Amino acid sequence: MAEPVLLRRVGHVDPTRLEDYLAWGGFEALRRALLRRPESIVDEVKASGLVGRGGAAFPTGVKWEAVARESRTPKYVVCNADESEPGTFKDRVLMEGDPFVLVEAMAIAGHAVGAEEGYIYVRGEYIRAYERIKNAVEEATRAGFLGDHILDSDVSFHVHVYRGAGAYVCGEETALFESIEGKRGQPRQKPPFPTTHGLFGRPTVINNVETLANIPPIVLHGPEWFRSLGPEDAPGPKLYSVSGAVNAPGVYEAPMSVTLRELIEEYAGGVRNGGRVQAVLVGGAAGTFLGPKELDVPMSFSGLRKVGAALGSGAVMVIDEQVDMWEVLLRLARFFAHESCGKCYPCQLGTQRQLEIVRRMASGRIRYQDILRLRDIQATMADASICGLGQTAGNAILSGLRVMGLDVS
Ligand SMILES: Cc1cc2nc3c(=O)[nH]c(=O)nc-3n(C[C@H](O)[C@H](O)[C@H](O)COP(=O)(O)O)c2cc1C
Ligand code: SF4
């Protein structure tokens, strides 16, 4: 296993001490970035091939370039630290173990796109992460890495830390903006996109925690180095949250050439009690179940697409043969019915109908007509929902049925 990039400081530094971060090369990337033209930083992020790690897999440099080109000010940089996807806990490990890296990355992003204000939106349940991030922002401000005229330059950047209140949908970028603005956390229609109409209706870069953690190393070591860390179509390191029936659940860093089998057997110590894999949910609740015959799939965007799945946030939930799959599907259906924000009917009603049908099937009444109904609901939600929550709410259920041999194709 190669030397970690994203996790290299986690567990080795005191995350509350700025001195520790500095001793490990912290803020060197910001120092260098401040000596350079903003466009050259955007070009470098584009050349690195970094794509967002929050689930939508959008190229980060393209997003930054669009905001940099906007002449309207103020502009904002927002860090999506909501991490609400079930089975995902990688951002938590970064925030708790290496919080200063986020502060540094956001200041670099601010300089690159011409923003002077940043917001970090932390999942409500993540109390320790919130405390660590708040402390990092205060320490960095005191030491002159944030605030007016950072390190005596012309660049100013202030960071506000905000706590969510426990809604899955507030991880969706536009619902997150609404929440920061003090409104009900519901997604907006897109377009317009955040790059032109984001937080407070202004041009906004919004990135996931892990995406941002890649920025200082890219500035320090360059895009070629970053590209050399993974397969050609999926550069850079990736964090995988591995949970469920494995001997060593945890967050693992690997290049995206890693296979699902390697993650389970080599990184996470294999299936617990010498058991066998029944199914693996890849990408979280919004993701897809794969069966035991699909474990050799590379855990990259394109690798997973080939088997009809998506990498999403990099969650890997292992279900062994001891687990009742109906119970798992029922929980997922309950989750979506509970978390649907109700703004659009396909999702508001579809998630309720889906739950009723899964409940009926889980009680032992398995009818072909119900499988057809689930397919119909999934297709309607995918086509007609406003946001990704409804668009993906049927994926895990249908793929779970497929793995159970209830073929729905
Ligand atoms: C229902 C829903 C929940 C989401 N939750 C998160 C989340 O917790 N964290 C996150 O970074 N992105 C989440 N996203 C994706 C964001 O909308 C957005 O794509 C992401 O923050 C962009 O950052 P990136 O380009 O760095 O990935 C969610 C999307 C949806 C539809
Ligand atoms: S898809 Fe669901 S969560 Fe998204 S806006 Fe519609 S009702 Fe709300």
Number of helices: 18
Largest sheet: 5 strands, mixed
Largest sheet, order of strands side by side?
6-5-9-7-8
Name the average pLDDT: 97
| Element-level helix/strand string | HHHHEHHEHEHEHHHEEHEEHEHHHHH
Characterise the protein shown here:
With 409 residues, the protein is an alpha/beta fold. The protein has three domains: 18-227, NADH-ubiquinone oxidoreductase 51kDa subunit (Rossmann fold); 237-320, Roll (Ubiquitin-like (UB roll)); 325-403, de novo design (two linked rop proteins). Helices cover 43% and strands 13% of the residues. A hairpin with a 5-residue loop joins strand 5 and strand 6 (250-255). The chain is globular, with a radius of gyration of 21 Å. It binds flavin mononucleotide and iron/sulfur cluster. Residues 52-56, 58, 80, 82-85, 168-169, 171-173, 206-208, 211, 387-389 line the site of flavin mononucleotide.
